[in-house]
Amino acid sequence: MFNDIGPLELVTLIVLAVLVFGPDKLPKVIQDVTRTLRKIREFSESAKQDIRQELGPEFKDFEFEDLNPKTFIRKQLDNEDLGLKEIRNGFDLKKEMAEVADAVQGRESESSSGRVDMSKKPVVDMVKKPEGAARDERPPFDADAT
Known about the structure:
Elements lengths: L6 H49 L13 H10 L5 H7 L2 H13 L17 H4 L20
Pfam families: TatA_B_E
Membrane topology: Single-pass membrane protein
GO molecular function: protein transmembrane transporter activity
């Protein structure tokens, strides 16, 4: 519970507690705090048991930590019944992206040799400008169109 409190911070808290409550009342305050924490833990465990009983026998191994999305996904990915590992291992994103890049640039990749052959020209060369337009000439600006 107090894993991130260092020794100097702990000493500071003890000194502050002694100054605020005094040495006479400090043991009683500590007992009250521990009793309250114990009751809160018992209440939360009782609530968890009630929820598990209400959900039924199919949720007997339900853990409330599973409600955290990261924990839930990690648990489902480790589940062998779904076969997600085979799907994840069978999908090679780098290979797919290389094939798309080759198709866009007009090159033929090793894995796409049986696929539809695109023309040998790059896609950029397929788009032609009108022959009458000069390269440095801009199209006319139409203020109403924008």
